[in-house]
Amino acid sequence: MSRSIGLWFYNNRKIVLAVTWRKGCLDMRFLKWVWVRALLTKTFLKTLARQLYLKLTKFTRRSSGAIDFFGKFAAGYDFVKSVSMYNWEVIQRSRLCLKQLAADNVQEVFVYGERDVTEVLYNLTFEIPIKLNMLGEHYKTSNDVASHELRIETGAARPLKVIIASLVNIEERTMRLCEMGVDNRRIVLLS
Amino acid sequence: MRSAGVQISLLLPTRGRVALVQRLFDSLVQTTDDLQKLEVVVYVDEDDAESLKIDHPALSLVKIVGRAGTTMGNMNRACYDASHGRYVMLINDDVVFRTQGWDARVREAATRYPDDIALVYGNDSDQGEAVPTFPIVSRTVCDVLGEICPRGYRHLHIESHLLDIFKQLARLGYKRICYLDDVIFEHMHYVVGKASIDLTYAKRSQRLDDILFIALDDERVFKAKFLARWIEAGRSNCSIEAGTQRPSAQ
Question: What is the interface pTM, i.e. ipTM, of the complex?
C-alpha cells in the first residue's frame, strides 16, 4: 500500500513525489532524492565559499578611486548573486546533460573539466546512474594526478563520450581533447 | 615592416580610439631609446574604419584586422602570434609612456633572468606594485605556458591571471616578479579621473571574466609548475611534447 505525503516544486513544474511506505521502510527513491540534494547543497556552498575566497585573495583591486562602503557592499552582493546563479545553472545543465545521456542508454562517460562541476556531476549520478571516469591533466609527477583521475590521454583510448565539465573556457578544453585524439563527435557540452 | 632585431613587441588591441592611440604612439616615440628594437602589433576590428587607418611614420607597426566582438584573450593571442620580439608587453590604448629610456630599463630588468622566466612590469600611476596593468613577459614564458593568455577573457583579469601564475611560482621557490617602480606607464583610466567614459569602458561586463578567472584557478597552479620545472630542468633537459609546448611527462 502506498500513500502520497509530499508535494514539491522543481523547475517550475509541479511534481508529486510519492513517498511510499513498504514493509515499514521509506522508499529508497525518497532517501536518494534527499541524499542527492544534500550533496548538491554541500557542493554549492563549498563552491561559493571557494569563489568568495578567490575573490578576496586573488582579484586585483583598484587602490585609488576608492568606492564607499555601500558601493563595496553592493559590488560584493552582486558578485555573490552572479556566482550563485552560475553555480545553480551548472547544476541544472549537469542534470539535463546526464538525463539526456541516460535517455540515450549511455552507461559510462569520461568527464574533463573543473573540479566543482565534476563534483556536481558525480553527485547527480546517485540519481541518474551513469558511471563517470574523471580525466585529469598530468605534469611529470604522478602527484599531479588525483587518485580518482585518469590521464587525459585515456580519453582517446576508449570510445566513450567525454563531458566537458565547465560552462566557461569550453573552446580551449575542446581543443585540448581534440589535441589528445578525442573525436569531436564524442565531446558533450553542458551548454 | 621590419622584424629582425626586435626586442620588445607591444600588443595593442584597440577600437574606436584613434586619438588615444596617436597619443600613445607619440609618447613611445618621445621616450623609447631604441625604436629599431621596438614593434607595435595593433589589433583592429574590421568594421572600425578609423582605426584601420592607424599608422605612425617612426614606429614599426604590424596591423591585424579581425572580426568585431572577439574576446580580449583572442585579440592578444592574435597579436602575440604576429609579434617578433623577445619580450612582449600587453598594453591598452589608454596608456601613456612617461619614462625616458623605459625600453632599456625593461630589457635590463628582463635580462637579469637568464632563463627568461620572469614577469616584469612598471608603475601605472594608479595601482602600482599591486597590479601588473601592463605586464611584460618573454616569448619563452609564453612557449612554456603554451599561450600568452587564455582565449576566454573578454575584457578583464588577463594581468591578474599572469600575476597569479608568478605568485604561485614564487610559492614554489622562484621569485620572478620584477616591479619597476620608477618606470611609469601611466594608465589614463576614467575611474581615476584621467579620461571621460566612452563606449569601450561602458560595455564591460565583468562577471563572465570573474567566473573564468575562478574556473582557471587550478590551471594556474599547473602553469606555475610548468615554469618551475622549466627553471629546474634548464632548456636543454626539458623536452617539449609535440604541439603542446608542455614539459614532458615522465
Answer: 0.78
